[in-house]
Amino acid sequence: MPPSASLPRPCLGFCLFNSSLLIFNSLLPTPFTFVRLSYHSGDWDAVDERMPSNLLHSLVQYTTVPVDQKEKVVALDSPELFRYPFCYLSGHRLVQFSEAEKKNFTQYVRNGGFVFVDDCNHDIDGLFARSFEEQMRVCFGAGALKKLPKTHPIYSQFFKFPDGPPPTGFELNGWGDDLVHDYLKGVETNGRLGVLYSNKDYGCEWDYDFRNKRFLAEDNTKFGVNILLYALTA
C-alpha cells in the first residue's frame, strides 16, 4: 500500500443486547494484529513482552473481533507500517527518529493510523518523555500534543472511565516521578485521535500472563480494550 493511501480499517458495528454494549465484526478482511514499532534509537524491545497477548486475550474475551494471536514487530521506517491500523511504541531511553522514521510516523497518523505510545519510566521529566515529546513537536508542530479531557470518547469507547485514565500500580507505589498522572496526551488529526501518549506505564501494568487475571478483583486491562477499539473504529 502506498504511504499516501488511507489505511485499511476493519468494518465494525455496534449493537445493544440486554442493556450491554456488544461489538460484532462484519466482513473483516484480516484478524487484528498487535504491531509493536521498532525504531533505531532507544530500547523499543526492552520491556512488557507479555502485554500484547494479555490485551489480545481481553479483546477476545469481551468482543468478537478476530485477532492474530502473535505480536508483530514492524520497523517504523518500513512501508509495511501502512498495512496496519494500530501500532504500539514504548521504551525508557532517548527517542530520536531518523528522517525516514519521522516521515513515516507523520504520514501514518495523518492517513488514519493510530499509535499508542507508553513511557516505561512513568516520569514526565524522564529522557523518554522529553525526547518523544520533542519528536511530536517536530512531526506535528508546537502544541500538537495536548492533554485529553476526561470526556474524550476513548474513556467511554467500550468500558466507562468517567474519571479519565485509570491509575497504575507503579504510580500508586510512588515509582517514577512519584505522581499519579490524571491525564493522557494525544495528537489529533482530521477530528480523530492519531497518537495516544501515556506516562503511566500501562505496558508494564499489563505485562503478566493473561491467566492471572482471574486473581484480580477488577480486570485492569479493560482500558486497553478501549484503546484498541478506538483505534479500530474512530
TrEMBL record:
<dbReference type="InterPro" id="IPR025297">
    <property type="entry name" value="DUF4159"/>
</dbReference>
<dbReference type="Pfam" id="PF13709">
    <property type="entry name" value="DUF4159"/>
</dbReference>
<feature type="domain" description="DUF4159">
    <location>
        <begin position="33"/>
        <end position="232"/>
    </location>
</feature>
<protein>
    <submittedName>
        <fullName>DUF4159 domain-containing protein</fullName>
    </submittedName>
</protein>
